[in-house]
């Protein structure tokens, strides 16, 4: 019988290829291509006085050297502003190659094309650029005070100023029994996929056609942008995303300067050209994210219910805003998490700095928002002496209140309306998993041994699966092979597998007969891209819709041939058969043959579909009216709004009493992304997200000095966690189906990383007894905080005083030693 | 010594290396990194390059059986040595034709079984590292497995399923050894 | 990130290598394991015109254990030394430190002598050479010479090795019987350069400490050794005075080191850290001393710690 496909932890179809060296990533292609390399600005802010390439042009193997003046027409115009939000009043974008001025270290100034990358770099080294340095703006404070400007015509460095308010916040705060104010700070990090960006372009002179490959999260987006830049008809440009070695957001931004310049050079030189970004380029030339300063004022009642929430934050958007202000908008809306904030006002300023641009990184503004909200929840609990989980629980939106409309506009300009979720159930599961109620005992026994431990918690809601749309195309070949294509791209999420699962389940075919292509504009030119945890929701739904159409057509054709009603048919393992009489059947391959009347019999199967095979009705056309040849179908899914996934995490940390080193002892996750297509893959996404979150909480930050130099632009100094730094994740799931799409699914891609900084801050705070307001936190930072706390510069938590009293009284009586519950895998 | 010629002012060396059991040669300048030599001169693109400063481990290959960073070695230095890349871990003739079951080595099979990879870019470095590790440590504990992979960066998986894969690979290895022993015993007794 | 062009030399003997180095002078760099050098070349932070690749030089790949020392040839990989049971039995400190050097794949390629010649005070092995009062054996155009560690390390990444000289081996001195060693470091990530590290050797004679010394990673600009004797000698490990003596030793370390801050840790934090690590590592060394084998044959009482150069004619000199 058919094994159930949908919802099963099916092994990935991608893997046999990828584990044997069969993957084909960008730099694995085009062995005959010329190599591009770039001269990049060594200064954060400078005027370009002169570029002298005379020493470089003679380097043997150099084919071309290009600066801004060499770029014709639209190639030399500013790069597009992709998301022109109305509040982005001072949007600025750079040029493919800098014109007159550079605004961050790493901005491309000249391009060299040569026979190989070694030679191209030799030439880059010989190009002398004279700069006149300008005042540099680094850091949010410096941007905010506006004394120095990144762009002369942007006063105060403010790219955008946005305010959303629901209810009367001032009144709510004025009348609230309690108010608290928090100042928070979260530093920059970056996606850091293991494969950098890359572009490879071939120009076909005879046909006037461009084929390009890009390590991108949106091949349709790149295609459209490049066609526009190179003034080519869309029909003459195709863009393929090959295997992509991770994205996490940085590859949704497009077109990168190199995505315009490499195809342009390929056409100009009439030779294939390739650029594979190296790690240093990725650090200084590809986008970062996260950096924000936040001020929260909250009013609440004696029970800890929030009555009014007033949030102001300042967001570092780097030197340019080609991707608009998506990140701060998401922060401002997703900050609310699973809670009812009472009256809510959020005001933000998106600021220019002389640093590389800021575009979405997994979580895309949510980790910052979650940090603000969850720090606030902990602060309320502390102020009132209440249990932190209890305070959260009292503020939850309840299942009975779903769908819940916050009265705000989300990042897609549509209402921020939660479709479903059961937050009390999630919290109950989490408390059970981590042993919330037993922690006090554990802490007492740990303290008796001279150890410092803390328990932290964080909750979030994530809008996933935003529009506008995705499409799916299904085609059944006469062999029974099912070809599936969708336009969005894959960077490791297992799309080949999960989309095949959907098709196998919906159509009734074997998984191994389903072959999925993603990110190839030749196969599916209508698509948006892979971001915002949207692939499963959007393409998954579109593919389901398309498959249902194909199924219906297959049943119609088979019913005709078998002379039964379509309602009496079922499709099992690729065979259409009569329910209850499985001997009366035909394979889907045969149905495919019948669907396509042929003139030429190129093989045995085709013979059955030629005009002279079998009987036909001479009064009907070979292809019936309203029908199309072929067993195929197309479907699009375009929802009215996002679906909202949610999750809750808890962690137990231990801090070294002397060295302040921080160790995560346990990490627990409850995750609800609606119906799961493949739980194994969902769990893998959660693990990976948590690991990135741990990186962002304890290890990773972009260390710029005052002159705008990135001091840690290498894997040696930018501390991405190894296996030795990442805890084992104990994960459990809740499945609250989304009512919005045919499969009940919600996105899962970003979830894992969203609350981690909040959770770790909560746990360290709990261990230390003073507030943690700035992340990431290193042992050195914590040690410094302890010193300041000891000096009275950092206040104690209220509960610290209580705990200290109670623990000193209990430590003598309690000698039993408990350990944290063992991880269960 | 390698044979040399001059090209574009650079000395070109005739480098011969035994890769996955086959003698392979190419003419390259002395500065050609072993990683680039494998990927671009020999077109064995299974070995990936993630940082070119020896930290990420994506480019790890086996040099005379020991895992080393191919981005921190010059092809000229590898002259006459035996290199194993991810392509050589699998006995299928062409990795592009998706191999299954027995043609994969136990580590490859375990990674596929345990969802030990997502984007797959760092994976070849893990596979070579773990293959060599299990040869010396056939039955690691979970902590030892974690330590064994702690010199390789992965940005997708959070490592949890990689640790699981290492443990599973040890099992598969033992199972296969048992099967071989049974077969041999069968042959001998017949 | 591709290295600039260079001329590759692959000598087969020490004499040949020295001849090439003599010819290329300061334009040349020695390539052994390359695990520190090649990243620098790839980033084009250095572009020497000549690389003298000694990987094919014969006779440099031996680990030799003599009664007084462990001699490590210039082509011995960290992993080879780490795995040598003979070396471990003779001088456990080597393995104790080596497992902290980066990651196994780096140790499989990188050489111990190379990391000492690189003279990074954030490296483990220069500190170990210092702690063992070791010697670098160099070969030059005018013949072999031996450079005691104190004369070898001149400054950050700077040694007394001349451009035309090749470090062919180092000798780590073995400790006296009754000496226990331990090494500990704290890094941001496992395998990273340490924020601080400390290695100690403690000799216990008749139940009391008769000698103790420490050397450091990442908290001094050149490898250095601190005699902890004033704090610890005469004290019975675990006895009443022990805790105070350990504190005094840690305090001495606190005064001795002179760390610099960087993005990973401030100078103050590093100073605190190495002080605390000293407190934690001393008991381990004492524990090790209980089953120490030490130098053989049994040393004279004055040689609990090697403090000056003595004769080891058996294994000095250049192999050819």
Give structural notes.
The complex is a heterotrimer of chains A (825), B (190) and C (320). Chain A has 825 residues and is an alpha+beta fold. In chain A, helix 5 (219-230) packs across helix 6, helix 9 (366-384) packs across helix 10 and helix 12 (439-448) packs across helix 20 (798-813). The radius of gyration of chain A is 29 Å and the shape is globular. Chain B has two domains: 3-88, Roll (Ubiquitin-like (UB roll)), CATH 3.10.20.30; 90-185, [2Fe-2S]-binding domain (DNA polymerase, domain 1, Orthogonal Bundle). Chain B has helices at residues 34-41, 106-113, 123-136, 142-148, 160-189; strands at residues 3-7, 10-19, 22-29, 60-63, 66-69, 82-84. In chain B, strands 1, 2, 3, 4, 5 and 6 form a six-stranded mixed beta sheet that branches. Chain B starts with a strand and ends with a helix. The mean pLDDT of chain B is 92. In chain C, 32% of the residues lie in helices and 24% in strands. Chain C has twelve helices and 14 strands. In chain C, strands 4-5-10-6-7 form a five-stranded antiparallel beta sheet. Chain C has a four-stranded antiparallel beta sheet with strand order 11-12-13-14, with helices on both faces. Chain C has a three-stranded parallel beta sheet with strand order 1-3-2, with helices on one face. In chain C, helix 11 crosses helix 12 (267-289). Chain C is globular, with a radius of gyration of 19 Å. Chains in contact: A-B, A-C, B-C. Chains B and C meet through strand 2 and strand 5 of B and helix 2 and helix 6 of C.
Key features of this structure:
heterotrimer; B: 190 residues; alpha+beta; Ubiquitin-like (UB roll); DNA polymerase, domain 1; 5 helices; 35% helix; C: 320 residues; Uridine Diphospho-n-acetylenolpyruvylglucosamine Reductase, domain 2; Enolase-like, domain 1; 3 domains; four-stranded antiparallel β-sheet; 12 helices; globular
